[in-house]
Amino acid sequence: MKKTFISMATLVLASLFSASAMAKLPAPSDEAKAKAAEAAAKTAHGNKVADFQLCKSREKVAAHYYKTAKASGKPTNPPVATPACVDPGAYVAAAPAAAPAAPAVAAAPAAGAKPAAPSAAPAPAAPAKKS
Questions:
Q1: Rounded CA gap, 85 and 63, in Å?
Q2: Contact, 45 vs 91, CB < 8 A?
């Protein structure tokens, strides 16, 4: 009887926790979507860089193989024609989406108003300590 009660209690608790885990998440905000797109672009560029480095290392290994095989007199097959390695260059972040323009009335100062005094630039933040 005690085993049955424990089994039933475990089953009820497990069903309660699984129901809460299946809750629907809210749709991501525009900012979250932009961050995800930027992360995807960075990952894609990183993959291109890795492919370029792999291509260059393969060329280096093949050159070494043909050099040592020729020096030792071993016969080799002619190299297979492959596309040239393309350097993807440095990562360039995509331009952020243009912010909606402010109304023209708010942008123009009032006729008799003095321009605001320039504010002091904020001090740079201190670097975080490493522990």
A1: 14
A2: yes
Name the phi and psi angles at 49, rounded to 5: -65, -45
What does the mean pLDDT of the chain come to?
79
Are 83 and 55 within 8 A, CB to CB? no
Of 31, 41, 45, residue with least CA distance to 94: 41
Per-residue model confidence (pLDDT) at position 93: 85
> What is the distance between the alpha carbons of residues 67 and 114, in angstroms, rounded to a whole number?
77
Alpha-carbon distance values, 53 to 45, 59, 88 (Å): 12, 10, 10
52-79 burial, b at 16+ Cβ within 10 Å, e below that, comes to eeebeeeeeeeeeeeeeeeeeeeeeeee
User: Using CA atoms, how far apart are residues 123 and 110, in angstroms rounded to an integer?
Assistant: 31
Task: State yes or no: pLDDT of 121 exceeds 90.
Answer: no
C-alpha distance from residue 44 to each of 11, 55, 89, 97 (Å): 44, 17, 13, 20
| pLDDT of 39 strictly over 80 | yes
